[in-house]
């Protein structure tokens, strides 16, 4: 696969949930080694797009390719675990942590190659602790008793405890205090420096501005704008047309 080829591509993807037709022919490319922001008003189809990529809601039509290989679309029946094993990690909006398990146990479950915590790559674990120091402090603490920000840190840490080629992250800053959001921005910037590819759904436009290389804007189940994040940041009229607000007003 060419280094210049997108790591992920959606072509004409349609998704139905029950009787509802949610995605109406989504076309989206995610360049390798970049952070692609997926923006749009509530209900535009952003979360459905991430869940469709992971096979949680199957695409009825169209095609999804990852690293040049089909993983979803018409006639493709890969399961969500199969898709994950190809090198995609998903951080859902609800974080999906196991509240009755400790921080250590949550990370061990995500480290598929490890049978005990001692099997987790020490250097990688220390790197995660450098990003999220609270996880070292609460290593043996039940995850359900962590603060909202600490739970989000754990959710992201689980996604990166093993190297992944692509991270899908759904609204990581939702409901978090500004100081925690800044910590999260710093951690995701560090991930960018490792050339990890990220597709990030986010309503916090300060985070979008700080992290995004490219951007796709969704409306009514379709991608209606694609381009450089910097260009959207500079074009207030375009922000209003696509999102109904200006990024400047949100930090």
From TrEMBL:
<keyword id="KW-0029">Amino-acid transport</keyword>
<dbReference type="InterPro" id="IPR003593">
    <property type="entry name" value="AAA+_ATPase"/>
</dbReference>
<dbReference type="InterPro" id="IPR052156">
    <property type="entry name" value="BCAA_Transport_ATP-bd_LivF"/>
</dbReference>
<protein>
    <submittedName>
        <fullName>High-affinity branched-chain amino acid transport ATP-binding protein LivF</fullName>
    </submittedName>
</protein>
<comment type="similarity">
    <text>Belongs to the ABC transporter superfamily.</text>
</comment>
<dbReference type="GO" id="GO:0016887">
    <property type="term" value="F:ATP hydrolysis activity"/>
</dbReference>
<dbReference type="InterPro" id="IPR003439">
    <property type="entry name" value="ABC_transporter-like_ATP-bd"/>
</dbReference>
<keyword id="KW-0472">Membrane</keyword>
<keyword id="KW-0547">Nucleotide-binding</keyword>
<keyword id="KW-1003">Cell membrane</keyword>
<dbReference type="Pfam" id="PF00005">
    <property type="entry name" value="ABC_tran"/>
</dbReference>
<feature type="domain" description="ABC transporter">
    <location>
        <begin position="8"/>
        <end position="245"/>
    </location>
</feature>
<dbReference type="InterPro" id="IPR017871">
    <property type="entry name" value="ABC_transporter-like_CS"/>
</dbReference>
<dbReference type="InterPro" id="IPR027417">
    <property type="entry name" value="P-loop_NTPase"/>
</dbReference>
<keyword id="KW-0067">ATP-binding</keyword>
<dbReference type="GO" id="GO:0015807">
    <property type="term" value="P:L-amino acid transport"/>
</dbReference>
<keyword id="KW-0813">Transport</keyword>
<dbReference type="GO" id="GO:0005524">
    <property type="term" value="F:ATP binding"/>
</dbReference>
<dbReference type="GO" id="GO:0015658">
    <property type="term" value="F:branched-chain amino acid transmembrane transporter activity"/>
</dbReference>
